[in-house]
Structures are given as C-alpha cells and as structure tokens.
Recover the amino acids of this structure.
C-alpha cells in the first residue's frame, strides 16, 4: 500500500447467498485523511462494502487491506483500533447503564484504564455535548442524543477511520448539522471519514470525494464536485442533486456557474454576478 492509503480494496466479491451477489470485483483506494461519501440506490452495495472495512464481513474473493493489514487475518477487535464503525441504528450499539459507561466501553476493551481512560471519556463527553447526560441512562434519551452517544463511544477509541452508516437518519436538520459539524471537526483533526448516506445535501456540504455504487460495482469515484457535474451518472443511479444545485444550473444563462453545490456557494456566486453588473 502507498503510505498515504489507509484502505485498499482489490477485486472484492461478496455473496449473501449463491444467488445474491452483493459486490462484484470492487477495486478502491481511500487515502488517509479523506472525507468520502458512499452513495447509490438501495441495494447498490454501500453497507456491504463498508462492513468489509472493519471485518464484519469477509471477502468471498479478493482482498481488503486496512493500514496494510489483511482483514481476513486480523480480528475485528484489532481492526477496531484503526476503523470505528457507527451503525445506522444507535440502539444496535448502546447497551450500558449510563452514558459515561457507554463512552468508556470501547477504550476499556482496548486495554485503557486509569487517567488515560478517564481523559478519553471526558474529552468525548465534552466534544459531543454530553457532559450533563453523563450519568443518565441512554435508553431514556431521545433518538438524537442516542445517536450522539453512539458516535462519541466510537470517537473515544480514537480510530484513524470513522465509518458512519446513515448517521443522520431520524434526525431533524438542526441536529443533523450539529452532528455533521462535529464530524467535520474530527476530519479537520486528521481522521478519515467514510459517510454512507442518501442525503445529497450532506454529501455536497461535507464530502470531498464521492464513491457511487450501482449493482455491487463502482460506477464513479471522484471529487464530489466532479460527480455532480456528470448528469449521466446522476441519471443512471437516480441520484438527485440538492435543489440549490439545480437552481444554479437553471440560472447559467445569467452567469451562474454549473458546479454550485451549497447555499453558501450560490450566495457567493449570486453576489459576484450582481457586482459585475454594476
């Protein structure tokens, strides 16, 4: 593996049963420090692919290397030091009596104890705004808070890579943005982020690169801005760009660029057009 590659996939095939082929010869390199969105229709292989990164699934054939280690030869527990996986449903992760215990569970299983463990837990509680809920049972908290706890519990393990499977499902826009702003700050700290989502607004707002899957294979893998400029890719996968991107394209005759992805970009371009007309 190249020194700047954290995940390498070569000719990966996976079958759930002999008659259901979920992944078909996938080849993929994810660089250390990347922020990658994994997108595509239901059944395209998104979750199946990312579950290979932490060893939850093993290749039927082919190879997955994480930090240079073959996932078939390294246990899930050992991979957890590199890959942190946040499930789509937080209730599939949460089971401890208090939020503090939940956040401490992962790093304790990695062998941490004493001041180092306590420091990890306190830092995670502060980063995710959970200090006041540290002694509360997660089961009685709202879905948004349980989601934050599930991410914080993985963050406390300090993996190099975070895989988040539909992390904003069930959250309103304000809570979604709050969570994703924290994820962005983790990326700015140097963590590799892999985001599985159907929300194209999140993809355009946060992901530097996008991986488009279709029928178990890679249809495209490129900078997010380039992906959303390729109308044939979007049409083939049924992906709809954010409304602000569509509005910008309709205003190209007025001078708007064809690669606007976010509201802030639209505003800046619109103001620039106004100034040029003065």
């Amino acid at each position: 593996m190249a020194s700047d590659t954290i995940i390498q996939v070569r000719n990966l095939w996976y079958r759930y049963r002999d008659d259901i082929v979920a992944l078909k010869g996938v080849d993929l390199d994810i660089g250390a420090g990347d922020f990658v969105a994994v997108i595509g229709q239901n059944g395209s292989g998104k979750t199946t692919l990312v579950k290979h990164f932490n060893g939850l699934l093993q290749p039927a054939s082919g190879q997955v290397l994480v930090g240079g280690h073959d996932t078939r030869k390294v246990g899930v527990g050992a991979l957890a030091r590199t890959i942190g996986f946040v499930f789509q449903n937080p209730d599939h992760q949460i089971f401890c009596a208090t939020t503090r215990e939940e956040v401490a569970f992962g790093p304790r299983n990695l062998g941490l104890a004493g001041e180092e463990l306590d420091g990890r837990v306190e830092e995670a509680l502060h980063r995710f705004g959970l200090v006041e809920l540290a002694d509360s049972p997660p089961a009685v908290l709202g879905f948004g808070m349980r989601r934050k706890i599930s991410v914080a519990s993985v963050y406390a393990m300090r993996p190099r890579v975070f895989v988040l499977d539909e992390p904003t499902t069930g959250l309103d826009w304000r809570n979604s943005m709050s969570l994703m702003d924290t994820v962005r700050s983790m990326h700015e700290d140097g963590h590799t982020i892999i985001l599985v989502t159907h929300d194209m607004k999140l993809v355009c707002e946060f992901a530097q690169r996008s991986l488009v899957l279709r029928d178990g294979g890679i249809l495209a893998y490129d900078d997010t801005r380039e992906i959303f400029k390729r109308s044939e890719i979007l049409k083939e996968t049924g992906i709809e760009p954010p409304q602000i991107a569509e509005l910008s394209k309709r205003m190209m005759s007025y001078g708007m660029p064809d690669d606007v992805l976010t509201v802030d970009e639209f505003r800046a371009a619109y103001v620039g057009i106004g100034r040029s007309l003065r």
User: Anything to note?
Assistant: Residues 242-278 form one domain. The chain is about 35% helix and 25% strand. The mean pLDDT is 92.
